[in-house]
């Protein structure tokens, strides 16, 4: 099941650089692991923003919630979720 | 170059069904041709809405504009465009 | 899987009363059938509005889209969808 | 009488973890007691958000206000309230 | 139980004057009857707008919905409802 | 002359409790004195919010401004003001 | 007493030109009479918009409402009203 | 050339009172000098808000920017600017 | 003096094609004449929209208003105007 | 390829003046270098705001993202990006 997710990140201005770097490093590791697993199907940067557009492919809405809240940067994110489904004009038989 | 596009369609309440059907048929044909060409890389329906989320892969912003305005349903659409680029945590070397 | 859906209905001012009545009658029949099936789990009126708050329990986002777009009043509705999941403080073990 | 309530929680970035944990623990206890009493009829997590959608069944608007302001996390919440009533297409004779 | 209601009226530009006048006449009659009954406790015009701010005193949210939807101008109104309760600094012991 | 006023209060998270209590105490005293004088005609709590809906009856807009800015909580409030007048369907001859 | 008023005009696309011209002519006559009387103290066009910013000097909010609703273009206007008062840094002793 | 300007002031909660008083004093001095010069033609308080509505009469947009950014409170203001011009129904031959 | 202008065009769905074509033809002629004169300094299409971003270089706000309202498509446009001035980091000595 | 960018700058109230000055100095140097290179084609101040409107001429959306995120003030900016293309009524054959 596909969900489009937009994540806007805003770190506190007074967060020490080492803390921010460590957060970003662990975030990247988890994001890449989830991409390799196929759960985080697409991950794009929005031009000019500390934000991304992502497509998740999960078994349920609950699984998506668990993935998102497990992200190290979750406490600093504003997140919007939209459920997607196959478009009747898509050339693919599934939701791809 | 990737762009995320959201299209919301609103046909006039008094459009004859035959006109609407013909518009949708030619829209679908063009949408599928553009998918096969690789320009319209993804096309998903937003659940519960007469709207889609699309990813276009074009050579320039001008090309995107020409594609969008050539759609038969263009006069009945509200369109939002966001430029995307590769995310530093993506596992792909290109924008894919 | 649970989704919260808000539907706002706006019929054209010049729709003949017989047409509107027939639309509402078939809408009600389908809404009640879907409630009996367990798919449309809750249906409440928002006070002072021609609008409802509903909870759907479906197998996938696609199924929800198919249900919503099959509603006779769908062309006259503005629809908002939010995916829900179990709250950690819920006293129920499932999403109920 | 039914009210739909949406609660968004935002804890200060500099709140000590022990304070936050204690707040969440007492919040959960009260939330569960109110669910057992039937006052807090439904409690769902919104996917990807530190927020919930709830249905309260109270004797009056005043009772709802007293319940909401008694929540330990109330000072850190943004709350929206909508009054609900029975939908004419509901299969239930009461507001359920 | 008190509810604040804001009603904005927008009649179609092509409604015949006789129809509009008859709607307004029956609206006024019902509004005044409800004021005399104590259900529609306050009714004020918002300066410069075809809109009012009202305070209703009803036994339940359902009763408010029935009152509002019985208004002849209801199909032409945008309505916002807010539940009120006694303020702790009020000099009145009840919600008055 | 009547004005509807909505006041939303937001105290800084780090304000000492004694300071907040003293502010609220003097706010309540002034609010009650203004109610007894007839200037602050109605004061209701909005359900689920640290906010109120008030009706002021003043001689001029200037007087309203002076009253509002004299409130001890004024620096912590977001305030919206709407001018009201007698509604043609009101059963009262004055603005009451 | 001063009020700032913003009026946005939107005439129906199918209004006959003669009707529009007559409306504008009578609107202008009344606007000029009210300016000469001192009630409509300032009247400016917002650049690029069919809209104006006005300052009214009236005895009461009711008088303002009566003036605004007497304008021939009132049914085609969206109107916003803000109450003004003397600024403490003004070099004038009154509201001027 | 006339511009309507709205300025909303928000001082940090932890600014020492002496600093705030000094800022306001110098702000008032400059505001009054600019009023005497004719550049700051009108200055009104918005009722219930720490905000003003002003009309500036300047030779160019650049001059307006220089005036606004020279205000001592500028760093604490949210500012909206709208260009005005003579209204065709104005009784004045110039922009007055 | 520079102004940024955004124009969104929305032609009525039932406007005859010949009328629309004639409007667009005269609009283009005037737009090009104004570009040649230097008044309409830049004119760009916003990708995916029937809208443009323009930079005007005029002697006064009044002149801008006269230019905009003389456009044949003006009655079908939503227009936003922002006054610009030289940026202190610009490499040009004037507003260019 | 042209993009319109709006940047709003908001420095923390407690940033030392020397830090702010150094940030602005390096920002200006980079902004001027990018203007000289032709990448940052236009840079205007919005009147009354600590904000600019810019036109960038880049080879790709990725290049724009890299330029924007390399700005020293980037962490303190809110940025909006809109893709532009040649307008059919432009007198220039390219996007200029």
TrEMBL record, chains A, B, C, D, E, F, G, H, I, J:
Residues 1-89 form the Muconolactone isomerase domain. It comes from the Bacteria. Its EC number is 5.3.3.4. One of its GO terms (molecular function) is muconolactone delta-isomerase activity. Keywords: Aromatic hydrocarbons catabolism, Isomerase. Pfam families: MIase. Pathway: Aromatic compound metabolism; beta-ketoadipate pathway; 5-oxo-4,5-dihydro-2-furylacetate from catechol: step 3/3. It is an enzyme of class 5 (isomerase). The keyword Isomerase applies. Belongs to the muconolactone Delta-isomerase family. This is Muconolactone Delta-isomerase. It comes from Collimonas arenae.
């Amino acid at each position: 099941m596909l969900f489009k997710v937009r994540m806007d990140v805003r770190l506190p201005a007074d967060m020490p650089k080492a803390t921010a770097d460590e957060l970003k490093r662990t975030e990247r590791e988890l994001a890449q692991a989830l991409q390799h697993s196929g759960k985080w199907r697409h991950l794009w940067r929005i031009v000019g923003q500390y934000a991304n557009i992502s497509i998740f492919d999960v078994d349920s809405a609950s699984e998506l919630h668990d993935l998102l809240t497990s992200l190290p940067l979750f406490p600093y994110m504003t997140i919007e979720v939209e459920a997607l489904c196959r478009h009747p004009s898509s050339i693919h038989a599934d939701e791809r």
